[in-house]
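Q: What residues go here?
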């Protein structure tokens, strides 16, 4: 790992509670409200906000991780989703960090990754890595 503590089994179990929400095809992770900002109009819903808050609380958003430099590797996971089935824990945490942080610069990125099923796939990989079998 690159300076980030590994999540505990209890933390992973807590994160997995978001899986049914993120896998619900009717779930809307954000809404657009241009009255708030023309440049960042995506407002996360309560569940997505809570998920991100837990990632930070658990220390799983990797401090000092240069996610822009790692973005090409992340794109490979997007283009070849089957790679997630064998992704090491470090890469799962890097991907979560990248998607949360990238949303600050590319409004709507994180909700898009939820809608595409990428965040659910990362949670499934965490479940496998921790023997939760989701």
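A:
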């Amino acid at each position: 790992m690159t300076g980030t503590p590994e999540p505990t089994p209890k933390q992973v179990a807590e994160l997995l509670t978001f899986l049914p929400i993120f896998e619900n095809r009717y779930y809307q992770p954000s809404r657009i409200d241009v009255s708030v900002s023309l440049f960042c109009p995506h407002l996360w819903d309560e569940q997505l906000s809570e998920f991100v808050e837990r990632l930070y609380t658990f220390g799983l958003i990797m401090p000092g991780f240069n996610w822009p430099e790692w973005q090409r590797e992340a794109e490979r996971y997007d283009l070849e989703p089957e790679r997630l089935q064998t992704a090491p824990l470090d890469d799962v945490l890097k991907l979560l960090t990248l998607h949360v942080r990238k949303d600050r610069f590319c409004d709507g990125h994180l909700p898009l990754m939820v809608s595409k099923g990428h965040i659910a796939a990362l949670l499934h990989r965490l479940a496998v890595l921790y023997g939760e079998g989701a």
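A: Context that may help when evaluating the design: The helical segments are 9-16, 19-23, 46-57, 67-79, 89-105, 109-115, 118-129. The chain is about 55% helix and 5% strand.
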